[in-house]
Amino acid sequence: MSRVRFALFILFLLVRCGCQLSAQSSIKLSVDLRDAPRKLLHTIEIIAVEPGPLTLAFPQWIGNEHAPAPLTQQVGVFIKALNDDGGSALPMHWTRDPTNLYLYRVSVPAGVHSIEITFDFITSDTSGDGLASSDANLAVLDWNTVLLYPYRGPDTRVADMTVTPTVILPSGWHTATALKPVTEDAQPISSSVVRFQPVSLDQLVDSPMMSGRYFSEVALAPEVSPRHFLDIVADRPEDLEVPPVWVDDLSKAVRQAGILFHSHHYDEYRFLITLSNNISGEAVDHGQSLDDRRPANFIRNEKWQKLFAGYTIHDFLHSWNGKYRRPEGMTTPNFQTPVNTSGLWVYEGLTAYLADVTTARTGIWIKEEFLESIASTAASLDHRPGMKWRDLDDVDLMAYPLWSNEDSSYDNWRLNGFDPYTQGELIWLDIDVAIRNKSHGKRSLNDFLVLFHGLGGDTGPKVVPYSFADIVTCLNQVVPNDWETFLTKRLHSTSETPLQGITGSGYKLVYKEAADHDFQYSLAMSLGKDGIISDVLMGGIAYQAGFGTGMKILAVNGQPFALATLQREIDAAKATTTPLDFRVENTGVLSDLHLDYHGGQRHPVLERLPNTPDRIAEIVQPMAASQ
């Protein structure tokens, strides 16, 4: 018997046994990861059914993903009818729905009450760049890629379906997930066969699993209940060496989050970190864990830790904002219903703001670094003329197609799926500052978070949807104000950059002379070290001079292009009236362009407004447990 056939046979026996032992479960799912190093996952499902027409769905829309599921990577689909007496499995013909390719149609014969489904999932990334969700030493399992579920139309509720999962690991591999094993053995799990307790289908999909040969686990903020763990898999054992300062920083973030929300909405929380140069880079939020996939030396690279300090905290805070409290348009009963992303300004914008605030409150950033981050966000929005025609509500609704576009050409004119993060962050800074100013410093956004995200106190994982009106009502409980008009103006404005929170906090955005390597605040264009222009500010001086995206700068003032050369010539132009001369190439055509610019290199900073309260200083203060 071949290795794969033997693995499928073992899986079949495991699933069959599961059916007999846990009759209350509607789906028995077993996934064999032993071929993950070859970028293949093998699935066997047994699903309870009734005779007649049956539709099976491959999950298409996962609310926290930025694209529909990779259907083309599901292969080798076979469906069989099982006799009630456990006898032979009879092949069943299936057809794909011609208008919804994620649906499979079958007809269940009379007398059949369960079916067996087998298929493989190819873990190679759809981008075709050779990356994947598995390699020779580790794998990340997204459960939605290894299952089909009964679909009865738009009213199908995955929360009402129960799945009993089992995995088979490669020899010597360990695993970590928010799912609970059948036995409460101490983690990490290292048995080759791991059975998990029955769980609802929506919670299963919200509980990714990582596994690997090299694994480490560290308890975070051990005095906090529920428990929190940092779990890491890596391609090399040396990449598991976590600097103590990082453990300390994440522990501080755990403590600050508990104080901030006065609640937890998980049984335990796992920071799942995959360190590999062979794995697709993703960072996905989940209710009881995060799934961050980073380069091999991410944790030990001090520069990356400083630049991306808030990224892990961002996904952690989504447990409250986005998973527990979720916009009603993004709360769908099943995985075939597209989400309405109009609430991203809260889902992502508020999380972006809180991540920066928490990063400062933990001490990872000092106040000046928080100010620098806000200044960078504000300046980027100050140079996005697309905000003059596309309001934030439209950006929210267009998030999926904007996310899927990887071309940065005229990004400032088109906008992109990450504008809800940046625009939303400034809106929530504005809200925080407005509350503080209207209450004379007695109340803040912290009070809103306790009411809104602490609703119900400590709970297990669940979703509590909300509407725009719910936000307005809760804000009015904190400080009475015309919040509906306040928010509506900011969601639909096409007349101004949302800088009110900065001025209200006692600062103003200014541009001072300093190096800025992408030159968007000096020459009104962005370019790389190879001289290729990635973006040109619509209507800016570079646009008016004839520059366009995709062009390559070959020379500056007669000198071969280099970033250092361009910076030097920009500085020298401050003392002259002579335009900067550029030699550029555009799809094989050479031309000479001229920029009459003499303002030097410019970098955004926040400058204090005299005789005003420094609300930023208040915002970044660590919170005490009594608050």
Helix/strand layout:
Layout lengths: L2 H19 L5 E6 L7 E9 L3 E6 L16 E9 L6 E4 L2 E2 L6 E6 L5 E9 L15 E4 L7 E2 L11 E7 L5 E4 L15 E3 L3 E2 H5 L3 E4 L1 E7 L7 E7 L9 H18 L7 E7 L7 E3 L3 E6 L7 H6 L1 H9 L7 E3 L16 H4 L1 H13 L5 H16 L9 H6 L1 H6 L6 H4 L4 H20 L6 H8 L11 E3 L1 H11 L4 H10 L7 H5 L2 E7 L11 E3 L5 E4 L4 H4 L7 E5 L2 E2 L2 H10 L7 E7 L2 E7 L6 E7 L6 H5 L8
Parallel strand pairs: 1-11, 17-18, 18-20, 21-22
Antiparallel strand pairs: 1-2, 2-8, 3-7, 3-10, 4-5, 4-8, 6-7, 9-15, 11-13, 11-14, 12-15, 16-17, 19-20, 23-30, 24-25, 26-27, 26-28, 28-29
Helix pairs in contact: 5-7, 7-8, 7-12, 13-14
Structural notes for this entry:
- With 627 residues, this protein is an alpha+beta fold.
- It is built from 19 helices and 30 strands.
- The strands form eight sheets. Strands 1, 2, 4, 5, 8, 11, 13 and 14 form an eight-stranded mixed sheet that branches. It has a five-stranded mixed sheet with strand order 16-17-18-20-19. Strands 6-7-3-10 form a four-stranded antiparallel sheet, with no helix packed on it.
- The radius of gyration is 27 Å and the shape is globular.
